[in-house]
Fold this protein.
Amino acid sequence: MTAAEVIDGKAFAARLRAKVADQVAQLALEGLQPGLAVVLVGHNPASEIYVRNKARQTLEVGMRSFEHRLDAETRQDDLLALVERLNRDPAVHGILVQLPLPAQIDAAAVINAIDPAKDVDGFHVINAGRLATGQDALVPCTPLGCLMLLQDRLGDLSGLRAVVLGRSNIVGKPMAQLLLGANCTVTVAHSRTRDLPAVCREADILIAAVGRARMVAADWVKPGATVIDVGINRLEPETPGGKGKLVGDVDFEAVKEAAGAITPVPGGVGPMTIACLLANTLTAACRATG
Ligand code: GUN
């Protein structure tokens, strides 16, 4: 058994951003500059890093970036008022409210207040419903990035067995919908699934999005399968070999001996998320102007 191909998400994301930048340059000739507004409430350290990276990459592809930082005690009404303002602002084509939100705010109420045409996260119920019913939707960025990596490696996915490990609204559920749309036979597995290893072993495509460090072991993977690792877990400093290292939901070193292809962490799915966010913002801007 030869070791798996390591899928280079970082390089793929860079190519996607370059394509977005080309199209942004084309739009500039028509006098249109796409704009993305990002709203951050409070001081979650991981969110701060994401938001900084988003802003930098938004500017790098030639779009306008609007950052709104609100303090952790912000009231829901004030956040809703900001969302309303952004909905009405013609310079803003995409709106992203960074999650998680503080406890006093109902995240679903805020997400569903975003104009679905500007919902570049694809989290609004209208976009989730459109995706589930096979209509044109803005699609959540992480699963969209996973699908692109899969189609790049495997081509047509028709008839393949896909197992999605995790059922979140952000990754697991939209991932399953996208794979169904690509004609896979899809199983959504989760923490209550019986005999998880046996279910995962049926997969030609295994998507791990559970948020548990190195949970997927080598004997969970069918030889030759394509394994996409969405997890980003920081190991406790006291873990042997840990020292706060970032690892996925897959035991990479062991699984790469069984899989046909595998995404690393970091450098796999992670860079695809922001690239897809920029692609969604471009899509939203093009639709807004017909
Ligand atoms: N927090 C972690 N990932 C995401 C994401 O993709 N979008 C938003 N809005 N918040 C997040």
